[in-house]
TrEMBL record:
UniProt cross-references to Gene3D superfamilies, sorted A to Z: Glutaredoxin
Keywords annotated in UniProt: Oxidoreductase, Peroxidase
Organism: Bursaphelenchus okinawaensis
SUPFAM superfamilies referenced in this protein's UniProt entry, alphabetically: Thioredoxin-like (SSF52833)
PROSITE patterns: GLUTATHIONE_PEROXID_1, GLUTATHIONE_PEROXID_3
UniProt protein name: Glutathione peroxidase
InterPro entries documented for this protein: Glutathione_peroxidase, GPX_AS, Thioredoxin-like_sf
Catalytic center residues: C37
GO molecular-function terms, A-Z: peroxidase activity
Protein family membership: Belongs to the glutathione peroxidase family.
One example of a Gene Ontology biological process annotation: response to oxidative stress
Pfam families for the chain: GSHPx (PF00255)
């Protein structure tokens, strides 16, 4: 098992393998997304606002379409990316559609769950916040509004090693 998020890679919507070393020194949100979920609009809207506000200070977002929860992501990843760009004027890094739970879970999500003691990702829009050194600050559940992550994002942007000593907000 990898000891850092930076030891992972994922395939983007163009079919290219992307090494997560590209996020070294950045504050990163890793999130599983779905187009036909009741949580879609508020999550994309608020993630977009956070991204626009803080991307120039070092915030990045890695979005992974996932169809594991009531088949709420039937679209191919590239279509999801294009729809989100058009509807929300939001262009995070989108990756191939993946599983987040079970035997076929993507290694990044296996790693994130292990590091946060999560047995399973509960639902769409589970958000993992990672500091500039690659340490997980916190995990925020599907109904936790991204705008409420802002204080943690700012603290993480202002320091290199910000971590919290709190339980996950699931």
């Amino acid at each position: 098992m990898a000891t850092s998020i930076y030891q992972h890679s994922a395939v983007d919507t163009t079919g290219q393998s992307v090494e997560f070393t590209k996020y070294t020194g950045k504050v990163l949100i890793v999130v599983n997304v779905a187009s036909e979920c009741g949580l879609t609009k508020p999550n994309y809207k608020q993630l977009s606002e956070l991204y626009k506000k803080y991307r120039n200070r070092g915030l990045d977002i890695a979005a992974f379409p996932c169809n594991q929860f009531k088949n709420q992501e039937p679209l191919p990843a590239l279509k999801v990316k294009n729809n989100v760009s058009y509807k929300y004027h939001f262009k995070p890094d989108f990756y191939e559609k993946i599983d987040v739970n079970g035997d076929n879970a993507h290694p990044i999500f296996k790693y994130l769950k292990e590091k946060t003691n999560l047995r399973n990702v509960k639902w769409n829009f589970t958000k993992f916040l990672i500091n500039r050194q690659g340490d997980i600050i916190d995990v925020f559940g599907p109904t936790f509004q991204p705008k409420n992550m802002e204080d943690d994002i700012v603290k993480a942007l202002e320091t290199t090693d910000y971590v919290k000593d709190k339980k996950a907000k699931l």
